């Protein structure tokens, strides 16, 4: 899979690829935790690709020294910041930091999905269906495992990439 430069094709390609892998997973992967890990990783890739532009705009707004526009709502400022990035750095600048973001989100989602699958298989009653409370506990367990297991260097690198100005001297 080779991504095209158009960001909307990136999202479309990721969704098609995830569907193909999940279809193969249903046919050939018997381990529920492994299937869940693949599903989580692919879900994370699609999520990161779709949300990266807003994340880049958010980080730029947080790190800019510009004062808030008086009397203007937050959507106005988001639009101004986004158009400024596109005009000065190009459309693909909205996806700065995508690599660290997608790798971090894929790992987080894979860990969360597989942890939840492991919880379900460990605590599944003879009836085969977890109660609402046990599903709730499984979600807490999966979130805790995800929080403990995933480290923050990818987030730091992503933010540094997003905040650097377009220049010939790239720091990262």
Automatic annotation (TrEMBL):
<feature type="repeat" description="Solcar">
    <location>
        <begin position="31"/>
        <end position="122"/>
    </location>
</feature>
<dbReference type="InterPro" id="IPR002067">
    <property type="entry name" value="MCP"/>
</dbReference>
<keyword id="KW-1133">Transmembrane helix</keyword>
<dbReference type="GO" id="GO:0031966">
    <property type="term" value="C:mitochondrial membrane"/>
</dbReference>
<keyword id="KW-0472">Membrane</keyword>
<protein>
    <submittedName>
        <fullName>Uncharacterized protein</fullName>
    </submittedName>
</protein>
<dbReference type="InterPro" id="IPR018108">
    <property type="entry name" value="MCP_transmembrane"/>
</dbReference>
<keyword id="KW-0496">Mitochondrion</keyword>
<dbReference type="Pfam" id="PF00153">
    <property type="entry name" value="Mito_carr"/>
</dbReference>
<keyword id="KW-0677">Repeat</keyword>
<dbReference type="InterPro" id="IPR023395">
    <property type="entry name" value="MCP_dom_sf"/>
</dbReference>
<keyword id="KW-0812">Transmembrane</keyword>
<keyword id="KW-0813">Transport</keyword>
<dbReference type="InterPro" id="IPR049563">
    <property type="entry name" value="TXTP-like"/>
</dbReference>
<dbReference type="GO" id="GO:0005469">
    <property type="term" value="F:succinate:fumarate antiporter activity"/>
</dbReference>
<comment type="similarity">
    <text>Belongs to the mitochondrial carrier (TC 2.A.29) family.</text>
</comment>
């Amino acid at each position: 899979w080779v991504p095209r430069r158009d960001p909307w094709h990136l999202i479309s390609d990721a969704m098609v690829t995830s569907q193909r892998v999940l279809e193969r997973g249903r046919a050939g992967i018997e381990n529920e935790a492994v299937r869940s890990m693949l599903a989580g990783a692919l879900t994370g890739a699609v999520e990161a690709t779709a949300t990266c532009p807003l994340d880049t705009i958010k980080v730029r707004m947080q790190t800019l020294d510009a004062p808030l526009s008086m009397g203007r709502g937050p959507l106005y400022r988001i639009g101004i910041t986004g158009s400024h990035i596109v005009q000065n750095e190009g459309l693909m600048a909205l996806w700065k930091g995508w690599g660290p973001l997608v790798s971090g989100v894929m790992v987080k989602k894979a860990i969360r999905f597989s942890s939840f699958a492991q919880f379900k298989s460990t605590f599944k009653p003879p009836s085969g269906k977890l109660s609402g409370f046990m599903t709730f506990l499984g979600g807490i367990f999966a979130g805790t495992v995800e929080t403990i297991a995933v480290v923050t260097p990818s987030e730091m690198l992503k933010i540094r990439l997003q905040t650097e100005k377009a220049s010939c001297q790239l720091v990262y």
